[in-house]
Amino acid sequence: MNKIKKWKTQITAVILAGALTLLCGTGLLDAEDHAAADALYQHRSAADGEIVLVGIDDRAIEQFGPYGQWDRDIISMVLEALNQSEDCRPAAIGLDVLYTGQSSVPEYDAWLAEAAGAYGNVVTAGAARFGTAMAEATDGEYYLEDFSILEFEEPYEALRQATTQGHINAMLDKDGILRHHLLRYTLPDGREMPSMALALVQMYRSYWEQDPVTLPPINTRGFWYVPFCGLPGDFDESISVADLVSGDIPADYFAGKIVLVGPYTVGLQDNYVTAIDHAQQMFGVEYQANAVQALLWEDYKHEASTGIQLAVLFVLLLACVWGFWNRHVLAATTLWIALCGGWVLACIGAYRLGWVLHVLWVPLGATVLYAGFLAVNYLQAAAERRQVTSTFKRYVAPEIVNEILKEGTESLGLGGKLSTIAVLFVDVRGFTTMSEALEAPQVVAILNRYLTLISDCILKNGGTLDKFVGDAAMAFWGAPLPQEDYIMQAVRAAADMVSGSEALSEELTAQFGRTVSFGIGVHVGEAVVGNIGSPQRMDYTAIGDTVNTAARLEANAPAGTIYISRAVADALAGRIQASSLGGTIKLKGKKDGFEVLTLDKIL
């Protein structure tokens, strides 16, 4: 049975850990997990001041009119204001705006291309539209590719020839949060298109004669995890396109820096919810600035393999099952707090070392198991309490039942354990003769009165009522839990029975004209106490020579007399008054020299 129970426990542990691991692996918890990761990992930090934003903002729109009606001369003037001379030009300028096709004013198109190409430091924007299309595998077979470039918008030819291109695709995760950056992609014509952020950083490095930037780790689709350094508004210096056109900002302010020009007003609908702030949206040009800063710092994070993290999760949850199984609440709670807190600290440490872990998986799985096992343990404890109460409330004093419930069912010693106990046997003397002279209902009524008296005396003195056998009863003290002064409690119960029988005898004599009395025996010693019998029928009882000796003492005790053994008398020396009968009483199964005493008085 123990082996079967162990196997069941192990199988249950594997099933529970596997089910929770599978739940995390399905992606159903990704939104919550990513939100927790964003809160834990993404924190603002001071940029190095090498990035300047120039906004197409409300002031510019107020000065030049609705953005949709702008001619390209305005941006041409912005570029000329930035590139006034070779000595004070920016290292790189990014136009986070699409300029595709010819405008209605060809002169302005030519002007923009000329201004952008003056020093070769301008990156213009392109954007791809992705979707599902047929693709050809290396073996010549065709398949559906769900991340194919269906269309690419790029600058008009003159502007494209005069500048470097970078894509400005900002692609949200499934939960609608912008936390990744598409590093580059290959166009259908074979050209490789870097992101604007990457193109700007490489141009900046070249300007300062530095080695090309080390590329970040990307996933299978070319995305890398962006560690944002700024909240919405952190890169804003309130520099407007209007300020450059009016000449309010000196050109040398931008010298050697990366300048990003782009929409900076809600009306232009270029804003996103990002990983660093789920409450306030960030403009696209700010997102580009965060990506640029991360590339400049080469502050890259590797997103750990999902398969490896699921394997680790399964092992930890399996350990949780074993850790929570049959644990007390305090131990289980301590383990739960240690695991959840330890995992969060491990995630923080891993992030600092460059690794992104799933924050929520382990704490969520551990919490589900913790709550589940608390519920299971509570139900088991409640069932055990009901079992203990149901089993013992009819036989054991209430205070004993309460102690058993505190200790748990293990204190019952199921199967039997050796205990030192005091055993009492009591028999109703003269009952057989009386039953022959009275009607059956009268006999039952008298017997119930005597047995009720016996039961009350036993329970009142903290004893365990073992059984009734006809007009006799057996009780013991010192089990199922140890008791202080258990021998005296047994002797007091015997004395209470004798004194109680005297009052009852007078009442029954008046009612039925008949009376009976008790013969009692008390002995102390070792006995086996526990559930004795078979799985179909068992009794909680005591067996052994101590029990037999107490029964022999009771069998020899005259009516109204309490016989005790020398062991009882010695244990209560100075507290009781007893008279030795020497060897005059021969107990069956006992050798000569076994001393029997009568209990005369409790001092």
What is this structure, in a nutshell?
The protein is 43% helix and 23% strand. It has 18 helices and 22 strands.
Describe the structure.
The protein is 43% helix and 23% strand. With 603 residues, the protein is an alpha/beta fold. The strands form 6 sheets. Strands 15, 16, 17, 18, 19, 20, 21 and 22 form an 8-stranded mixed beta sheet that branches. Strands 1, 2, 3, 4, 5 and 10 form a 6-stranded mixed beta sheet that branches. Strands 6-9 form a two-stranded antiparallel sheet.
Give the biggest sheet: 8 strands, mixed
What value does the average pLDDT take? 89
Report strand %.
Answer: 15-25%
The portion of residues assigned to helices is 40-55%
Number of helices: 18
Global outline: rod-shaped
| Number of separate strands | 22
What is the strand and helix layout of this fold?
Elements: H1 2-25, H2 30-41, E1 51-56, H3 58-64, H4 73-82, E2 92-95, H5 106-116, E3 122-136, E4 142-153, H6 157-162, E5 164-167, E6 180-182, E7 184-186, E8 192-194, H7 196-207, E9 223-225, H8 241-245, E10 258-263, E11 271-274, E12 277-283, H9 284-297, E13 302-303, H10 306-324, H11 329-352, E14 355-356, H12 361-392, H13 398-407, E15 417-429, H14 431-437, H15 440-460, E16 464-469, E17 472-477, H16 486-512, E18 517-533, E19 538-543, H17 545-556, E20 561-565, H18 566-571, E21 576-580, E22 596-602
Parallel strand pairs: 1-10, 2-3, 2-10, 3-5, 13-14, 18-20
Antiparallel strand pairs: 3-4, 6-9, 7-8, 11-12, 15-17, 15-18, 16-17, 18-19, 20-22, 21-22
